[in-house]
Amino acid sequence: MKSQFLKSLALFVCVAGVVSAQEHGTAKGAAPVTTATAAAPPAVVITADSTPLELAKAAFTAQGGEKFRSVQNMMLRGSVSLYPPNSPQSIPGGFSILTANDKLRIDIDARPIIVFKQIYDGQQSYSSMPNVEMPPLSKFGLSALSKFDQPGYKVTAIANKKKLRGFRIADAEGYATDFYIDPTNGRVMEFFLTYGGLTFGTANSKFKDFDGVLIPVSFSQRFEMPQGPFFAEYNVKEVKLNQTLAEDAFAIPR
Hints:
With about 250 residues, the protein is mostly beta strands. Helices cover about 15% and strands about 40% of the residues. It has helices spanning about 1-15, 50-65, 65-70, 140-145; strands at about 75-85, 90-100, 105-110, 115-120, 125, 155, 165-170, 175-180, 190-195, 200-210, 215-225, 230-240. The chain has a twelve-stranded antiparallel sheet. It is globular.
């Protein structure tokens, strides 16, 4: 039971990396961005007749537009509360997520219950939990949104969810993410993806603007396990964009 929970957690926190993954290389000599700004949100126009492509463009604009697309790398640090299936008690801990292009490093420290590390260096992966397959980060979530208008990507309609407007972004290989946005400002409030036969959902509840790029700083995730739903709640306390990364930032332990 514990082994299954840890393996599910491993896959779950890998998908958390989709929140910040971008399709760009590591910055060289760029100064990190660490301070939230109070910039006015970009103007978006969403009507009852907006097409799926127009909804995707509105979400892209709300996220920061070309500034969002040009992010070289991102580091998020903060606290996390993990809720095992059928348990009202959370497991508190800390997390760190570093992404650059397809590269990923995730550290979860919720001692004494869980200490977990996951690394993908662009070619091979490492997990402190063996036999855990990592989702291709550039295929899902906000990374897919950053490429919605590029060749090979298709935006299609899905049913709306209550007051949120919905659309789907899929690539030529069939990887797809369903997005639900706030029609008043275009912000991505929820997105869902399926990988390895499991459906993962992310709900964003709070954002901050960092140099024109909108970053979710409070978000929750859920997926269904045979034993019941698994939840995780993340609170981001530190954000760094476009920093100069150490050569061994994604080094796999030997």
